[in-house]
Amino acid sequence: MVLNQYNFKFMRYLILIVIIGVSIACQSKTSDLGDAEIAYSVDTVRIDSKGRLLDLKRSILISALDENSKSILLFNENDHSLDEINLDQLEFSGTYPLEVEGPNGTGKNVNSINLLKDGLLFIKSNVVSAIFNKEGKLLQRLDWRNSLDSSGQKYNDVPNTEFLLNSSGLRAFGLNYASGSNKVFLDVLWVQDSIIKRFDADPKDSYKSFILKSEDPQYFALMNPYVYLGYEGGVITVGHEFSNEITLWDSDGKFLKTVEYDPNLTPKRVKPSGIVDYPTADLLFKDYQSYMEQVRFGPPVWDKVNQRYLRLSAIRKFSESREEGALVPKNTAEVYLSIFDSDFNLISEVYVPELDLESKKYFTKDGDLWVFQNLDDELGFLVLSF
C-alpha cells in the first residue's frame, strides 16, 4: 500500500481555531499563519505489543487500515506474517501467518497490502498480485500479463505499485513507468473482464523533470521521484515527492483534475537541476540532497469525520556526518501539515515541531492525525488533534 475533510469555523476576528483533543498528558501548540491561528494539541500513544516482536522497519509503510480505522494490519518480515493492532485498545490483537512459497505463497518480498470487504486482503509482492483471506489462503490471482489492453494486445507486464478496489466489481489500479519516455501511467484492470485501460498519470510532465541519472562507469545511478498511489475520500490520488501536484481520478479511471496550490510555509515544488546526465554519481547525490533541502511531499489522507484532506511535507536539514554506505549525510526534518477541504482547496498550514519525518505511515482516525513513531523499538503514534 499505505498517507482529509475539514469543518472550520471562522471567528469574528478571522482566527481559525483547530482544537486537538488529547487523552493523556498532552502538549498544546499554536502557529501563526498570517491572520490565522491554528491551535493544536499532541499526544503520544504506545501500543502494548504483549511480547510480540513487531516489525517497525520502513516506518510500517507496508500496512493496511480497516474501513473505520479501528485496527491496522502490519506486515512482519521477521516471520512473514501480518500483525493486527487494535487502535481503540492500543494493543496487539493477533497474528496471521503467510506462506512464502507453494499454492498460497505470497513471494518473499511483500510490497503492499490493502484490506477489502468481508475481511479479505489484497497482497502485492514481487511475484504475485492476489486476494487472500486472513488465514493466508490464496483465493484469486490477478492476471495482468494475459489481460488485454485497448488495442486488443496482451499487457505482458506487471505494475510496480498496485491496490485493489472491491466496489461494483473488482478493479485493480497500478502504476507503470515507461523508462524511454520517462512517463508514469495509471493502468486500470477490470478483473472479471481481463481488460486494461491506460491513462497518463502525469499529464503535466512533472515527474520526468525530477529524474536524476548518472552513467558514471564507476557508479551508475538512477533516482526517480517516489510516486504515491492511493484511494482517499472516494477518489484515486497520484502524486510524487518533489511537487505538490496531485492528479485525481474516479474509481473507473476517469480523470477528474490536477490539484495545484501555493503553500506559504514551503515551496510548491523543487527547483529541478536541469541536468540530463550527471558526469559523476557524487554530483547526482549532491543534487538529490539539494532536492530534499527544498521540500518533499507525503501523500494526502482523508479525514472522513471532518470531511477534509491532510498532507505532510518536510524540509530536510543535513549535517556534515554521514553513516557508512549512506547516499546523503545524516539529516533532520522540519515537518509541515497542510489542510484541505473536500475539493482539495488549501485551507491552512502549520509547522509541527513534534514531528521529525514525513516519510512514514500516517492516517486519520476519529478526526485526528496519527503518525507512526518508533518509541525505543516499540510501536507508537503521535496523535495530532485539531
How does this structure look, described?
This protein is mainly beta and 386 residues long. Helix content is 4%, strand content 44%. It has one helix spanning 281-294; strands at residues 27-33, 36-46, 63-65, 71-76, 81-86, 91-97, 110-115, 121-125, 129-132, 138-141, 161-166, 170-178, 183-190, 195-200, 212-214, 221-223, 227-232, 235-240, 246-249, 255-259, 296-303, 308-318, 331-340, 346-351, 362-365, 368-375, 378-385. The strands form seven sheets. The chain has a five-stranded antiparallel beta sheet, with no helix packed on it. The chain has a four-stranded antiparallel beta sheet with strand order 3-4-5-6, with no helix packed on it. It is globular, with a radius of gyration of 21 Å. Residues 1-28 and 31-35 have low confidence and may be disordered.
Could you provide a short overview of the structure?
This protein is mainly β and 386 residues long. The protein contains 1 helix and 27 strands.
Key features of this structure:
386 residues; four-stranded antiparallel sheet; DUF4221 domain-containing protein; DUF4221
- The shape is globular
Enumerate the spans where pLDDT stays under 50 for 5 or more consecutive residues.
1-28, 31-35
Helix content percent band: under 10%
Structural class: mainly beta
Task: Give the C-alpha Rg.
Answer: 21 Å
Strand percent estimate: 35-45%
Number of strands: 27
Order of helices and strands: EEEEEEEEEEEEEEEEEEEEHEEEEEEE
Layout: helices, strands, pairs:
Elements: E1 27-33, E2 36-46, E3 63-65, E4 71-76, E5 81-86, E6 91-97, E7 110-115, E8 121-125, E9 129-132, E10 138-141, E11 161-166, E12 170-178, E13 183-190, E14 195-200, E15 212-214, E16 221-223, E17 227-232, E18 235-240, E19 246-249, E20 255-259, H1 281-294, E21 296-303, E22 308-318, E23 331-340, E24 346-351, E25 362-365, E26 368-375, E27 378-385
Antiparallel strand pairs: 1-2, 2-27, 3-4, 4-5, 5-6, 7-8, 8-9, 9-10, 11-12, 12-13, 13-14, 15-16, 17-18, 18-19, 19-20, 21-22, 22-23, 23-24, 25-26, 26-27
